[in-house]
Amino acid sequence: MDFFQRQYPMTSVTQQQIIDLTTQLNRYAREYYTQDAPSVPDAEYDRLFRQLQAWEAQYPQWVQPDSPTQRVGGEVLSGFGSVTHQVPMLSLNNAFSPKSEQGAFNHAEMYAFDERIHQALRQTPLYTAEPKFDGLAISLRYEQGVLIQAATRGDGATGEDVTQNARTIRAIPLRLHGDSVPDLLEVRGEVLMLKSDFADLNRRQLAAEQKPFVNPRNAAAGSLRQLDAKITAKRRLYFFAYAIALLDDTFTPASHDDELALLACWGFAIPPENTLCRRADMAQVLTFYEHMHSIRASLPFEIDGVVVKVNDLTQQRQLGFVSRAPRFAIAHKFPAEEALTQVEAIDVQVGRTGAITPVARLKPVFVGGVTVTNATLHNEGEARRKDVRVGDTVVVRRAGDVIPEVVSVVLAKRPMIAAAQSGMLNLFDDAVAQQSQYQPFELPAHCPVCGHEIECEEGEAVARCSGGMLCQAQRAQALIHFSSRKAMDIDGLGQRQIELLVSQNRVRHFADVYRLTLADLQAMKYEADTADNDNNRLPENIADVSDKNEISAPSKNNVLITSGNNIDTAQPTKWAENILNGIAVARIRPLHRFLYALGIRHVGERTAKQLAQAFGDLATVSAATEPVLACLPDIGGVVAHSVAHFFRQPEQAAQVEELLAAGVVPETESKRFNLSGFIQPARWLSRLPNIKLSEIRAQALWDLVGGKGEALLTDTALPQEWQQWRNQAVNQTILRETLVFLSQIEPLLQTQPAPAAEQNNTLVGKTFVLTGSLPNWSRDEAQQHIEAVGGKVSGSVSKKTDYVVAGVAAGSKLAKAEHLGVAVIDEEELRQLLKVM
Ligand code: IVH
What we know:
Layout: H1 3-7, H2 15-33, H3 42-58, E1 82-84, E2 94-96, H4 108-121, E3 127-133, E4 136-143, E5 146-152, E6 158-160, H5 163-167, E7 184-192, H6 195-207, H7 216-224, H8 229-234, E8 238-247, H9 256-265, H10 282-295, E9 303-310, H11 313-319, E10 321-322, E11 325-326, E12 329-333, E13 338-350, E14 355-367, E15 370-376, H12 380-386, E16 393-397, E17 405-409, H13 415-421, H14 430-434, E18 454-455, E19 463-465, H15 472-483, H16 495-503, H17 510-514, H18 518-534, E20 542-543, H19 545-548, H20 574-585, E21 588-590, H21 591-597, H22 605-615, H23 618-623, H24 626-629, H25 637-648, H26 650-661, E22 665-667, H27 681-686, H28 695-704, H29 709-714, H30 720-727, H31 729-744, H32 746-750, H33 756-759, E23 767-771, H34 779-788, E24 792-794, E25 803-806, H35 812-820, E26 823-825, H36 827-834
Parallel strand pairs: 2-12, 15-20, 21-22, 23-24, 23-25, 25-26
Antiparallel strand pairs: 1-6, 3-9, 4-5, 4-7, 7-8, 9-12, 10-11, 13-14, 13-16, 14-15, 14-19, 16-17, 18-19
Helix pairs in contact: 2-3, 15-16, 21-22
């Protein structure tokens, strides 16, 4: 039996009820899609929709042609039929308004258009203007008010039959709305994809490891031309109606805006914003154009200009056509946002978070109204994919307000290729090919700002400078983090002061903060105020990457100090004293906050707490080695590496030392957890870098040396692979350091705290089942925690199960638990039960 019939028991229903429900649902859809004013919640719509599906399943003979259930796509086609347009689908002539260096539009072409119309009509025309949608044109044919055909533009004379696909687009009425509908109507309009739906679609494409679409127009075109309309149905397309091509003579609109009004009555979405420019003169048209240009980026869909049409239909007919375009309308396109220029150099920029961005330095070029001298190449992968090289001619794009980017290289113009083509260069001459400007781009190994290593972690597109606080570019950000509430919580020291302290070079290391004096802060304010007077003009109209990029100088100084409530004229130094007080108080903080404040990559609050609770004091945390760190419950290889590496960088270690010397006290952690459960030979051995040992093999190795760690370094009877690994200097160092560290923490590993059962005996013998993925713990980790307090973990749910711990995408086990009435908890609740943070 059909699903819907199961849900809705057979009831007798009349044909009229089906018709009424169809009409009601179509009204809701119209309110939602074309009027943007839904009157019922989505859930109610869905309920009624299922009701209609159920009735239709019962009485298929009464399914209405405009039933919303018919929008899902039917059979897969083997190809599209062709449709001859009764009225050809024409194109529009273009007009451009280039922008001057000062940013003013030059509308000469539009004045010429206005003049031509004037001449031809011998009277003053009125125009209607509307957005020029960047989608694809289609023609919809309605007979007796019902959609019977949808066709693409094709070559203008014949197009493809995309009726099935168009039916899935909810903004296209399947039946014209209202009592008064024409017998024949052909509507022209644009199918497009909203920017937000485009972003969603590309996210899904990427998740499914499919190629993303280049832009919403390509996505819309690809989606409309699907032989399987079920795919189109999933793609969320939209439709705006902008013209009537055919209409029987029961309706006689006199103007373009009359036509739009009729289309709106029949349930179509018509070009928004155009109420601003109906029956307008050329001056109003141009104001509208400039308005649309300025709001372009914020519109929910892409437009590439404005379409200007003579409003009066009689005048339109009078004006007629030239070749394949009407004389009465013009596409007033926005200035080109792409231009050709040459790459003079490729640099890398360091962002405030250490992100490294390759940037092409360009021969200045005027694009979309601004002079562009830099364009981002996003990241190393992008730069290599586009293969941009110094000397290349490139296409630069400025999309809306975003940072200009290099779109592609004009390969034929690459100096080497061009020279080779003209016989002036021998491509096979190694000396030539070695020249740096002919080489593909490579990220430098060291940060151009501070010289620290640039690191790129596996699976991450973005490379980062590892300098942190030691890198001028990142210093302000690092310090803002250091003093933030969850870190050292330095009251009174805000972002604006930090940016000044850093840009004036008054603070270069964390410890410098604790050495600030009243005189320093006053000097800082004085310098900021003076700089203000010379420095409050910024160049205009230059889209320079460095202006918008993370690295840019601190925002305008004038707002930094003088605003805010720190200033009290009666006590002129009060603000500075407040800051100094805040700093003094922030000397003593719990170890975990101190660790978090250091800004070690991948160490968030939770990891910092783990480290503190595992090792107790700073000296032990900083001496812990990578394989030992990786034994802790929430810490994987990447985090362990990051922590161990941080404390082994001499400059970072020196910074920490200086903090202690400046009187900062990371308080020893009182709440500790039992390390012996986590740090065991088989575990840390299996977590050594550069070698993959399973815990079983690691245990075997440990047994081979009879539990004597030293022998791992010297025994020549151990497996070849092991000996090869340990003979590498780096590996040997890690192993040696680990053995030393373990001997130091020996007491921690020995002290067996009170058995778990005594601590938390409520969980002894309780059975847990883990399902789905937990937000912070792997299943193994969760299991270890459960077992540490005497609980058991089982693979399947039964009546004997005490708790099912469900994470994301929990499947049948969760369903079974619910069925059996077993308690279902999440990770947070599990942590509470286990009394682990
Ligand atoms: S009216 C006689 N209005 O522009 C042509 N076209 O180059 C009547 N377009 O393929 C077209 N927005 O897809 C008109 N508001 C609008 C438009 C628009 C976009 C597209 C249309 C056509 C192209 C003409």
